[in-house]
């Protein structure tokens, strides 16, 4: 009887076979639903994954704060609004707006992120774009540097027409300027992780009885009484200033005109790809 029934199920009995097939499908469907609650519970925590990914991809705090600074510079160059412009680091930026037309200033003024303190958090550099090569924009003159320390943006240094601020290959900052013919300065400093500038050395000229003397100290205070007079001539001092300028490095900037659309895109990819 069992063999006959089995044969009937496999080879014939169309109605019964269809009923059996429906029963099997229903059973499989019920089994699937029986485990649905367990599978759903294991998946539910992952529903927050997109939010977690979004949070991970959100701009870090320093970038968000730097963006406010760059945006204030953009607004100042574009329409003269200076309400949000930082009190420190604006001298060179104001000069640019005074001597360059709006469109030219937005094109020639650039911004970038670069870690010059070595703490793994980049600084914001704003400077002058002197040339374009390929798709890149480059320049040596820095108008303002800001760092991010203690959870906020801190002013570091600034440059302008009579006080050139440049970066060396070892990340030291070099300032060449002065208040007149008799008082010229060459300062070499480095940015420390706490946001302060440490003095490497300072050379400067100062009047003395028989002309001008060249002095040196390691406090970056141009006071002859607190410095050591060198045997360097003024000509040699000027040559040294020129050598520092020649060996300063080019910085890749993004044009300020692109900030509203581009932000820091591209710069961060370069920064991360450098392994920093």
Which structural class is indicated by helix and strand composition?
Answer: alpha+beta
What oligomeric state do these chains adopt? single chain
**DSSP helical segment count:** 10
> Strand sequence of the main sheet, in spatial order?
3-4-13-1-2-5-6
Stretches with pLDDT under 50, minimum 5 residues: 1-49, 272-276
Beta-strand content bin: 25-35%
Secondary structure tally: strands:
13
Spell out the helices and strands N to C.
HHHHHHHEEEEEEEEEEEEHEHH
Gyration radius, in Å:
33 Å
Helix content: 25-40%
What's the overall geometry?
A: globular
Distance between the termini: 80 Å
The pLDDT mean sits at 82
Largest sheet: 7 strands, antiparallel
Characterize the structure shown.
This protein is of the alpha+beta class and 276 residues long. It is 39% helix and 30% strand. The chain contains 10 helices and 13 strands. The chain has helices spanning 2-11, 14-34, 36-43, 49-57, 61-79, 91-99, 102-108, 234-246, 259-262, 267-273; strands spanning 109-114, 123-128, 131-133, 136-139, 142-149, 152-158, 163-167, 173-180, 183-191, 197-208, 211-217, 228-229, 251-255. Strand 7 and strand 8 (173-180) form a beta hairpin. The longest helix is centred in the first third of the chain and has 21 residues, at 14-34. Mean pLDDT is 82; it is low at 1-49 and 272-276.
């Amino acid at each position: 009887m069992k063999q006959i029934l089995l044969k009937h199920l496999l080879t014939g009995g169309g109605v019964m076979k269809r009923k059996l097939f429906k029963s099997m499908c229903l059973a499989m469907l019920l089994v699937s639903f029986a485990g649905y609650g367990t599978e759903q519970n294991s998946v539910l925590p992952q529903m927050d994954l997109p939010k977690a990914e979004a949070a991970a991809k959100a701009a870090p705090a320093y970038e968000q704060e730097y963006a406010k600074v760059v945006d204030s510079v953009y607004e100042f160059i574009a329409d003269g609004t200076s309400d949000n412009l930082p009190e420190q680091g604006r001298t060179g930026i104001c000069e640019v707006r005074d001597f360059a037309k709006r469109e030219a200033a937005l094109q020639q003024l650039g911004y970038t992120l670069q870690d010059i303190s070595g703490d793994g958090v980049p600084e914001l550099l704003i400077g002058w774009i002197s040339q374009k090569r390929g798709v890149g924009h480059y320049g040596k003159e820095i108008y303002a540097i800001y760092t991010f320390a203690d959870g906020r943006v801190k002013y570091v240094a600034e440059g302008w027409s009579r006080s050139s601020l440049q970066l060396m290959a070892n990340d030291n900052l070099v300032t060449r300027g002065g208040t007149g013919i008799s008082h010229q300065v060459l300062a070499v400093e480095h940015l420390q992780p706490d946001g302060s500038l440490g003095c490497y050395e300072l050379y400067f000229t100062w009047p003395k009885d028989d002309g001008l003397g060249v002095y040196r100290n390691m406090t970056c205070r141009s006071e002859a009484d607190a410095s050591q007079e060198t045997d360097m001539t003024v000509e040699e001092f000027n040559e040294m200033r020129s050598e520092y300028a020649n060996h300063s490095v080019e910085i890749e900037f993004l044009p300020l005109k692109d900030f509203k659309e581009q932000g820091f895109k591209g710069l961060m990819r370069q920064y991360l790809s450098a392994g920093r």
